[in-house]
Design a protein that fits this description.
By secondary structure, this protein is of the alpha/beta class. Helix content is about 40%, strand content about 20%.
Length: about 140
Amino acid sequence: MIIYCAGPIKGNTTYQENYSEIVRIVESMGHTALSEKSSKFSSTILLSDKQIYTRDIKWIDGSKIVIAEVSGPSLGVGFEISYALFTKKMPVLAVYHDQAGQISSMITGCTNPQLHVQKYSNIDQLTKIIKDFIVNSGSN
């Protein structure tokens, strides 16, 4: 399965290692993780903002589900979640660390049935949440 993995790049990067871990978990399950954090898709060429936007939209368009790390605020991640939910109508898993503090009400208050918000406290729990979401989304 092709899975878009979203996480903060320019916003709050406190939990960026956890974002990288999401990519590793998805790839370890044999799925394709579309993310600049994936070694398969990292680029040594500096991309313009427009090129990054175009690439990421194409990646979401080509994905079956989205998994987003939302422990820290990021306008880009919020945009990607909204695009996936309301334009593409696809399932989104938004995960956050239990030590992250206040998560955006635009995530926790969203009633879209395609959005699944889960809290995790360690990598083992994060792995289980991701595996369960992928299985329940219809393909493993």
